[in-house]
Amino acid sequence: MTQSLIFDMDGTLFQTDKILETSLDDTFERLRTQNQWDAETPIEKYREIMGVPLPKVWETLLPDHSLEDREQTDVYFLERLIQNIRKGKGALYPHVQEVFSHLKGNGFSIYIASNGLIEYLNAIVGYYGLDEWVSGVFSIQHIESMNKSDLVRHIVDTYEISRGAVVGDRLSDIHAAKDNGLVAVGCRFDFAQEEELAKADMIIEDLLELKKLFPAKAQKI
């Protein structure tokens, strides 16, 4: 039985906003050239729903488009995101590697559970070398229900996690922790919303705070 920390990716480990706007602009410019969009890029609406699975994103942003159009848009958007990651236009939040090194050095297992797609997550993990510390990266694509709580349950069951926490910035992360008997650590970062964070067991404003919250595996959370 292991004690572990399960991290969200977007808005928790990775500063998605650094590549989000340009990738979304590229995507909607493509729609404009195809005469499928004639307004501004809905960046603020996307920020409001940040953290939900991408199919839900396109249902919200493109409600009048066909499923085929949404799927093609999704593919193009993913391509733009990955290109921007590999060009170094994104960034991790401060102290990610330092905190990961501390956690692993003190006996914690580290996992990533994200609503992002597999190829996207692998691009971030590969570019920043996070696989040095991370034991497993899990996408919502691994779960038929597309539910974050079910994704975390899959990790808990697979690795026989007895104690630990889910660290994330949105309500789906908080629910995923509580639904699986784990501590919910809310991150007051870029996409966080106060009414959602209020449901967390504890709130951090910098990942460095995790070093004090989780000083050693033997210590109860």
TrEMBL record:
Key word Magnesium present: yes
Lineage, please? Bacteria, Bacillati, Bacillota, Bacilli, Bacillales
Q: Which GO terms describe its biological process?
A: DNA repair
One of the entry's Gene Ontology molecular-function terms is: phosphoglycolate phosphatase activity
* Any one of the GO CC terms: cytosol
Provenance organism: Rossellomorea aquimaris
One short Pfam name that applies is Hydrolase
Q: Which InterPro entries match?
A: HAD-like_hydrolase_sf (IPR050155), HAD-like_sf (IPR036412), HAD_sf (IPR023214), PGP-like_dom2 (IPR023198)
Keywords of the record: Hydrolase, Magnesium
Under PANTHER family, the record lists: PHOSPHOGLYCOLATE PHOSPHATASE
Name-wise, this protein is Adenosylhomocysteine nucleosidase
